[in-house]
């Protein structure tokens, strides 16, 4: 059940020793890059300043803006000849950042992904359909090489083209898929259109859901529709991409691979570490990347460490499902709201379809929030009274969660534009 038993179940004291030794190597490497060379000089630090893991706090944080400002090569720590691959972030919050890998960096990354997929139950005998964009995005090639390392048969389907995805799944008897959660829901409407039932008409047993925040309710809804087990997969391009943290069969938090990443949780306001188990911003340091080491990277993702050890026997700590990015927080009429709060409520209400969109507007200094919610075709063309009841119920439920009263527009299934990548949940017209 383990891909690498010794590493995955390593005694925590030994794991800390391994981390310290890898951290020192990383710091020595990092100094060779333009950015960290300059930073070390300014802050008068070097690899020898670090005697314990705690000393990491002497090193300044690295932000997405630092990466953007030293674009493209300011962070590489090896001779450019050593680099063999470039990836980039999706650019969700601005200009995309780029990441470079040596051949060994890629081998380490593939191995981590193999570890993740194996943990969730994927084996050599599986047929794995990767429904993620190939190319600069890390979700395509990242998972691809991980699955090949396990020895599974990989179908590099790429994103979109829903009817073809379904056909591939059926023709080649796909047993495992990698998919963006909002796309999994969208795809279910295409199954419906084709009068197919994914539970009966496909053989998928395992799904890896990644690349965007989603609630537990959303996962359960997807599992219910497809009849497979869906595992949460977290990663970000700055830390390779997927393969950073992943659920085990207990599906209760994601094991974050501490032999490869040093993990901290900080209060984003004070930048101080929070107490064990408290929520804050995830900060990570690469421990095994030579081409482009990154120290104390502020991910802007909000989560907490689950302090208790997991029943699966792995000693690497778990992080809780990501609540959202600090950037995602909406302030409406002085109230702080995360889009995930809306998703959580919507997924609980029977009759709600597969997609939603939050629209924020400002008229004469007054903010308003409209939530467009898709409902099934039958319901939409059915009785008006029923629709109105559903609309009122949604308003009531959302109000109980976010404390303000949103407007709710019910729209027909597949009306809200749905791209192939991460779902756009919010349109903020107040900025125009
Ligand atoms: P970008 O930061 O431009 O979106 P990436 O493609 O590197 O580019 O995406 C990484 C980000 O995606 C993470 O920092 C996180 O916000 C989000 N993300 C990825 N996987 C998950 C997941 N399983 N749950 C929640 N958020 C996720
Ligand atoms: Zn576990």
Account of the protein in words:
The relative contact order is 0.12. The chain has helices at about 5-10, 10-30, 35-45, 65-70, 105-120, 140-150, 160-170, 180-195, 200, 215-225, 340-350, 375-380, 385-400; strands spanning about 85-90, 100, 125-130, 155, 175-180, 205-210, 230-235, 240-245, 255, 260-265, 280-285, 295-305, 305, 320, 325, 330, 335, 350-365, 365-375, 405-410, 425-430. The longest helix is centred in the N-terminal third of the chain and has 19 residues, at about 10-30. It is an alpha/beta fold and about 425 residues long. The strands form five sheets. The protein has a nine-stranded mixed β-sheet with strand order 4-3-5-6-7-8-9-14-13, with helices on both faces. A four-stranded antiparallel β-sheet has the order 10-11-12-15. A four-stranded mixed β-sheet has the order 20-19-18-21. It folds into two domains: about 1-325, 3-Layer(aba) Sandwich (Rossmann fold); about 330-430, 2-Layer Sandwich (GMP Synthetase, Chain A, domain 3), CATH 3.30.300. The radius of gyration is 22 Å and the shape is globular. Bound molecules: adenosine-5'-diphosphate and zinc ion (ZN).
